[in-house]
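> forwarded from #structure-qc
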């Protein structure tokens, strides 16, 4: 990466000044240590400085420690936009709208599930559709589907796919306001109607994990989040809005490209940053459609968790009370949301674009469940299938990041490179030798997800903590995995 224009601001934070490139409205900032910056591809800097040109952007264009190049925004990108004077950009949200992670605690220990681990993974693989074309658990008419994406998790719980506490421990209670199915195309509905309750492919997963005592770094917060014993079993679900969200993003990118210059007089240096004024008819339509995809993804993860509860109960022959499966939290990392943040000492409503970045509220902010007021919002950062994942907590010191942090380990090589370098069948064997039993819909897809294709997750979370944008609580080690 061309690092000569990066200036240190504070430990773990570097800035590119606004005069670096013509058209930048604000500085660009990257949360990372110097070695991580040196490893980032040049496109990250180029894309981030382009983001700094968005109309209405406030304070900074930001990139998290797991940043790598994406579509328009870098993955790991954050932009706070004035909703009255600024724009909304699908490139700042991503194609997999509300891709997110759900962490589920259990009363079980690894010793209790080890004899049945292979059977559990096999049953989960059969029960939770995965892969590119996986067909979902339910099929809905257009009217019922539209009701579902308006109501989100509340709809799923009402239909018997969970309990009310699941809503309490989901970001936005599992239902984002303002979802408007009238702005969603028939093509998006057709792509999504049979995909509710599916993992999909790529980096999505359903993972059985264990937390060991030596991997607990903040005992007080760990207890608040439900980590109460050594070798405790947790489940992690990582997926999003599938073809439904992808089509919504595609539809509106094309729509914005056709109107942004002629209708609104907007011009960006990269067509992938197509945008429209947030308060315009076009911007409002996209926001309503995007919120439908956010709610779709909440339902998707809710149904998968419901199926996980069923499989564990059947295989282990334990009651729900004995299993103790409870949602720790469900966080999004591909959204644009209206939030209140302080700018120069004044509270303002801002449209926060987070693409491959996780909300990380401190405990005193609205929206954090009462149980977590002392600890802060749980932040879930998924690692590779070989290395493990992390639980962190939001911190008050993260105000300059608009209370945002990393979302994962971030890719270190392209999928094409990974497929050339790694063999899916060999990965299956080597992971089994390490005590990780994997089922996958695609060996080629598995090769793309090799641990070495990703950045070092330990370094990413250390950088986030060093910069003060979240606090490390515990690390989870994988023992079983379902991959698309």
């Amino acid at each position: 990466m061309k690092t000569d224009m990066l200036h240190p601001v504070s430990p773990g934070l570097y800035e590119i000044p606004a005069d670096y490139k013509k058209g930048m409205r604000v500085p660009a900032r990257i949360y990372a240590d110097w070695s991580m910056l040196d490893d980032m591809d040049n496109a990250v800097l180029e894309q981030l400085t382009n983001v700094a040109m968005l109309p209405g952007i406030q304070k900074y264009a930001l990139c998290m420690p797991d940043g790598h190049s994406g579509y328009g925004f870098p993955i790991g990108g954050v932009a706070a936009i004035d909703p009255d004077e600024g724009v909304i950009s699908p490139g700042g949200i991503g194609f997999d709208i509300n891709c997110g992670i759900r962490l589920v605690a259990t009363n079980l220990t690894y010793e209790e599930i080890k004899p049945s681990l292979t059977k559990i993974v096999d049953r989960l693989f059969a029960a939770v559709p995965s892969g590119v074309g996986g067909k979902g658990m339910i099929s809905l008419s257009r009217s019922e589907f539209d009701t579902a994406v308006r109501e989100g998790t509340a709809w799923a719980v009402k239909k018997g796919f969970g309990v009310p506490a699941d809503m309490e421990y989901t970001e936005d209670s599992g239902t984002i306001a303002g979802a408007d199915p009238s702005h969603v195309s028939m093509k998006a509905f057709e792509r999504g109607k049979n995909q509710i309750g599916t993992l999909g492919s790529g980096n999505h997963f359903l993972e059985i994990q264990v937390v060991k005592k030596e991997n607990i770094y903040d005992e007080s917060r760990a207890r608040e989040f439900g980590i109460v014993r050594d070798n405790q079993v947790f489940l992690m679900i990582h997926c999003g809005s599938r073809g439904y969200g992808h089509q919504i993003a595609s539809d509106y990118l094309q729509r914005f490209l056709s109107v942004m210059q002629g209708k609104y007089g907007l011009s960006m240096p990269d067509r992938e940053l197509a945008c429209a004024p947030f308060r315009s008819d076009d911007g409002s339509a996209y926001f309503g459609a995007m919120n439908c995809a956010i709610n779709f993804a909440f339902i998707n993860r809710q149904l998968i968790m419901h199926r996980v509860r069923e499989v564990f109960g059947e295989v282990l022959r334990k009651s729900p009370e004995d299993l103790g499966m409870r949602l720790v939290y469900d966080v999004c990392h591909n959204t644009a949301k209206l939030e209140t943040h302080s700018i120069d000492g004044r509270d303002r409503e801002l449209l926060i674009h987070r693409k491959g970045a996780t909300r990380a509220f401190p405990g005193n902010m609205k929206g954090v469940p009462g149980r977590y007021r002392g600890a802060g919002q749980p932040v879930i950062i998924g690692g590779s299938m070989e290395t493990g994942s992390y639980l962190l907590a939001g911190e008050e010191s993260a105000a300059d990041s608009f209370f945002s942090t990393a979302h994962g380990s971030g890719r270190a090589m392209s999928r094409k490179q990974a497929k050339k370098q790694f063999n899916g069948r060999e990965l299956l064997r080597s992971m089994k030798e390490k005590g990780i039993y994997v089922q996958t819909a695609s060996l080629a897809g598995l090769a793309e997800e090799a641990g070495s294709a990703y950045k070092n997750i330990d370094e990413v979370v250390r950088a986030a903590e060093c910069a003060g944008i979240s606090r490390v609580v515990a690390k989870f080690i994988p023992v079983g995995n379902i991959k698309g």
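QC bot note: Residues 7-94+338-359 form one domain. The longest strand covers residues 471-483.
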